[in-house]
Design brief:
Elements lengths: L2 H35 L1 E10 L1 H6 L3 E7 L18 E4 L10 E10 L2 E9 L5 E10 L5 E9 L8 E10 L6
Antiparallel strand pairs: 1-2, 1-8, 2-3, 3-4, 4-5, 5-6, 6-7, 7-8
């Protein structure tokens, strides 16, 4: 074969190799950017539901949080000073279970939406969160709810489970 024929045959192979290298390189970069924006881990929250239980108000106050940078704690005496779990339908459903839309509210423009369902005894259940805005944008969680009273507070509940903050899609 002549040199010109070899060059003509090698050019398409070189082009394919270059494009393949570029695609692999770019897909690695896209993955690493998405991975660097995502957070996930274990979540532990304690919430005081005394306002819910004694005053029939549709919220609980978060008193302890493993995600303090995103979900700060508050005090029961001043609910506006901390994070709240607000129940949209605080009554029981036909099966005797509390089953409600919920808002994890940490302040104006900073909240996440979800759903909580408690067993008829009210001592255990499940909450899931699907997204949020502000500091809670991209927030998802699945937590088990358990009754966790103390001698000084019979209205405490624990949330234990997993959470993640996904990288937000570009607009």
């Amino acid at each position: 074969m002549r040199r010109r024929d070899l060059t003509r045959l090698a050019a398409p192979a070189l082009l394919v190799a270059t494009v393949t290298t570029l695609v692999v390189s770019m897909s690695g970069r896209v993955h690493s950017v998405a991975a660097s924006n995502a957070q996930n881990g274990r979540l532990h929250i304690l919430k005081d539901c005394s306002a819910f239980a004694t005053k029939n108000l549709p919220y609980c106050t978060i008193t302890s949080s493993s995600l303090l940078t995103h979900i700060p704690t508050g005090v029961v005496e001043n609910p506006s000073a901390g994070s709240l779990i607000i129940y949209d339908q605080p009554g029981n459903n036909w099966a005797g279970m509390l089953d409600s839309n919920v808002v994890l509210y940490i302040g104006v423009g900073n909240w996440a939406t979800g759903r909580c369902t408690l067993n008829p005894d009210g001592n255990s259940g499940l909450c899931t969160f699907s997204d949020g805005v502000g500091q809670l944008a991209g927030f998802t969680a699945r937590v088990d709810v358990t009754y966790a009273p103390t001698a000084s507070n019979p209205y405490l509940f624990a949330w234990d489970g997993t959470y993640s903050f996904s990288a937000l899609p570009r607009k």
